[in-house]
Amino acid sequence: MSDPATTTEPDGAPRIAVLDILRGVAILGILFMNFNDMGRSLWASSDDIRSLGWDAADRTIWFLREVLANGTARGMLEMLFGAGMVILTDKAMTTASFQKVMARYYWRNLILLLFGLVHLFVLLWPGDILHTYALAAMIAFLFSRLRAQDLFMFGLSLAAFTLVTGTSNYLGEAQYRADLTVVQAKQQSGAALGKEDRTLLAADADYRKRVIAADAAAKARIADEDRSRRGDSASWIMAQWRVALARETDPAAIGAIWEAAATMLIGAGLFRLGIVQGLRSRRFYWRLTLLAYAIGVTLRTTGAIETMHFDDAPKIGFAIGEVARLAMTLGHVGAVNLLLTTAFGARLLKPLAAAGRTALTLYILQSLIGLWLIFPPFALGLYGTLSWAPLMGMALVIDVLLLLAANLYLRYFDIAPVEWTWRSLVEGRALPWRKRAGVRREVGASRAA
After folding, report:
1. Which of 109, 226, 228, 384 has the most neighbouring CB atoms within 10 Å?
2. Residue 284 structural domain
3. Tell me, what DSSP letter sits at residue 51?
4. DSSP 66
């Protein structure tokens, strides 16, 4: 089997075409996760998805998005970040000390952290992932010298934690519901209730009061965001800052860093085993794709159906969520590598390499287009006017245009603007950015079946 085509950036960093294609898939896919939060209430995505529209088309699009895409673009980017960590640091450690390599890698990610904070608080995208990835990468680096098997062990820590704690909570809730049903039946039949029965009924009454209060608070939060983001420029800016600060001070922000660092370690392990960059056989990728999708689609479908019931019945979604996300992400990685073993697949996916090479710039452009052109009150003002189906349709159109723009740009330039700025700051010098005459830039992938 031949190696994937490899090129270098102006700073000498290697690029592997397969990874660029995967990154292109991920960066374009992430718009489908973000666009609804740009065009409708960000809180509604977690509080009440029906607030974004819930007719037949919306339900279908949401279901497909939930099963096939939710969290997987993020997962692919995290795995690729881990692969990049190996590429950037393993060879460097053959000629430099761990401390020197660590210092350079941390400097690289501190600058990325700064970019993320600008994206978060200046460009006003509360869903920024750059600052999270920068922090996660610095944590993941501490484990980077481990064997692939150990990387997987640490990488699966969040999935194991959520599976164990989530299953325990689910079983406890199911038992509570079963006990409550028995007591309620006794109450309806007029049978005498014991002390434990009365305690259980009182606890359930208190629980229902808290649920009603939480639902009311969620509706108020969504309504407040809607009013602010439909108002004037000042109210729109303040709304974005409020959401950003609320998300960054929520304990879930720690979970996001844990998730990213863990998945980066899995990506590092997959790279060391030659899996993510396509060095395994076609049979291997068939098996990986089928197994991963069998697990991922089954678990994701279960979780999506549960969500669409909109009731307070015990739900297994939290327990299986991270396992399902990782499985679907691996399925996508396997499917892309499987396609690349064929001439048709390689031609089909080749344009995505340009999106991968310009991923950081495209990510910022997605925010500029959505947050500063299409939806804000001072521009087109379309916030709150589109439901799930048209939002995802518009995201698809934007992705197509961005993909065309990326391929056109790379005909004339070697590096995208945001990438150029980041790497120039890392290097401490202005890197060349125009296409170098006589230098052939590979964007395809060379594969043996």
Report:
1. 109
2. 6-159+254-427
3. G
4. I
- Rounded Cα–Cα distance for residues 79 and 271 (Å): 9
d(CA 168, CA 3): 45
Residue 280 lies in a domain: yes
Residue type for 172, please? Answer: G
Domain membership flag for residue 342: yes
Identify any residues that bridge with 104 across adjacent strands, giving them in sequence order.
none
- Dist CA 276 CA 171 (whole Å): 36
**What gap in Å lies between CA 257 and CA 28, rounded to an integer?**
22
Chain-centre distance of CA 361, in angstroms?
17
Residue 137 lies in a domain: yes
Buried b (16+ CB within 10 A) or exposed e, 54-88: beeebbebbbebbbbbbbbbbbbbbbbbbbbbbbb
- Provide the CA 256 distance to its chain's centre, in angstroms: 10
* Inter-CA distances, 163 with 167, 168, 340, Å: 6, 8, 33
Q: What are phi and psi of 40, to 5 degrees?
A: -140, 180
How many angstroms separate the CA atoms of 154 and 85, rounded? 16
Closest CA to 59 of 309, 425, 298: 309
pTM over 0.70: yes
Cα dihedral value 291, 152, 117, 22, nearest 10: -40
The residue assigned the tokens 């359930």 is 204
pLDDT tens column, 207-261: 899 989 999 998 999 999 999 999 999 999 999 999 999 999 999 999 999 999 9
**Number of Cβ atoms within 10 Å of the Cβ of 272:** 18
Is pLDDT above 80 for 440? no
CA-CA distance, 222 to 347, in Å (whole number)? Answer: 44
Residue among 104, 105, 168 at smallest CA distance from 137? 105
Query: d(Cα 226, Cα 338) in Å, to the nearest integer?
Result: 44
Q: What pLDDT digit, counting tens, does each position of 48-80 carry? A: 899 999 999 999 999 999 999 999 999 999 999
Q: Residues 353, 24: contact at Cβ < 8 Å?
A: yes
Q: Are strands 6-8 and 14-16 parallel, antiparallel or unpaired?
A: antiparallel
What DSSP line would sit under 306-328, residue for residue?
A: HHTT-S-S---HHHHHHHHHHHH
Which pair of structure tokens corresponds to residue 51?
């607030």
Tens digits of per-residue pLDDT, 256-293?
999 999 999 999 999 999 999 999 999 999 999 999 99
Please, what is the average pLDDT of the chain?
Answer: 92
Residue type, 43: W
Structure tokens at 348: 């089909």
Tell whether the torsion through CA atoms of 132, 138, 142 and 145 is positive or negative.
positive
Q: With respect to residue 419, please indicate whether it lies within any of the assigned structural domains.
A: yes
Q: How many domains is the chain built from?
A: 1
